[in-house]
Amino acid sequence: MSNSFYTPLEEIPRIHQRARDAYRSGKLKSIEYRREQIAQAGYLLKDNEQRFIDAMRTDLGRPAQETIFFDFAAVYIDVKTAYDNVAKWTKSERAPFNLNFFVMNPRMRPEPKGVVLAIAPFNAPVFMLLGWAIAGGNAVVLKPSEQSPGVAKLFAELVPKYLDQDLFHVINGGIPETTRVLELPWDHRNGRVARIISEAAAKHLTPTTLELGGKNPVVIDPKCDVQLAARRILWGRTCNAGQVCLAPEYVLLPENFQDTFVEALKDVYRSFYPHGPKDSDSFCRIVSEAHTARIKDLIDRTRGTVVFGGDADVAERYVAPTLVKDVRPDDPLMEGEIFGPVLLLVPVKDIDEALDIINSKDHPLAIYAFSPDQAFLDKVFDNTESGAAVANEVVISIGVPGLPMGGVGASGHGYFTGKHMFDEFTHLRVSLNNPGWVDKIAFGFRFPPYKPEKEKQLRALSPSLPPRPSDKKHASAKTGSWPVLLLTGVVSAVLLKLGWPSPDI
Question: What region holds the Aldehyde dehydrogenase domain (predicted)?
Fold first, then answer.
């Protein structure tokens, strides 16, 4: 596809300024207007489902069912959740009761960060990011991936038709356009090109949310349901041709169990693709020839044994679903995230060796374990770190309402989906309203001239520490409050009864 739809470089700063001006106009302070725009984001997708299915098929060769499963359902859940709850989530909230400060009406309220830049990965649209940024009251500039030109072009066409043209914009392009975008000051950034984005964000002290993926391991207990594990793991590795950030990548299993698991995977493979995967309408393509060549090179260099698959057609962006057994931790296939339909079997002598291998690598986005034994699962999850810890399943944790998706360390930071994504796109602005009479009965000790009796009052602000660990039996039960503040609390309670302080302050 031609890059004629790329945004002109000179237009990018003007788009940024237009979004900033629109944000400062205060349009999105109206919760009803936010709800209207959230609903419109949902209908942008709903009214054009077939066009997005076709665009995903053109860009990735993705089967329609995978687009419906990964994109549509999750987006509709999030749109409905945000629409139903944004009024509640944006309300001011009282701080926990504290006798010393209660009368000052300490509160906090989620407020928007400003103009948000959302840089999308090629393997998923940015509907969820868009909806939650709107819920938080932000203006949004979307930068779809140039590696998915069909979807990017569709966004550029549809966003102005469905959403406020001043507040919400699309910038399309490759490296020059992305570089120009990153030179501008934003109030929040989201994207996958982590180091480039983080370095650019640091120049403007811009907060970021990064979803990075990772080399996600699976730990197998020989007592697991072998057919179930094989079916779920191979599905997770081959859906979207393995181009899913939560996809399982390598399986750690006992050496004497490897052949049993191989046979189960071969059975599942034949059931998934009875006439072969290349001509199957249930198997995706790699996003670009360059990525296809990269994956092919890794397969060619492995010292493991290819059980099935292993073939690739760079011109067709095709890599066959591939199983490689007897892979060692230092194999080329273990060096980094493959992001393709290649599943690795790494034999180990015991679970401790499996945990050592996991912990020798960057923290993954997810760790999976298959076992009927809770003690086995606990050992895996309690002795590792990851964004998610999932038992007897893969990938679908992202679709569970109420659960956030996010990484740790090299797999990213920040959260996606649900209320947690709303929190990403807002900040808690705190407030106090302290009446003047408080200084006369409680807080006057803070003003000069300082005197010994004022120091005593000041120290009384602090509660007693917990018992010293070596001397618990001699612990004091003192509370650290003092009569004047007790009086303040009584007065505060009376004022609250009379309707002060107002909850709207």
Answer: 10-429
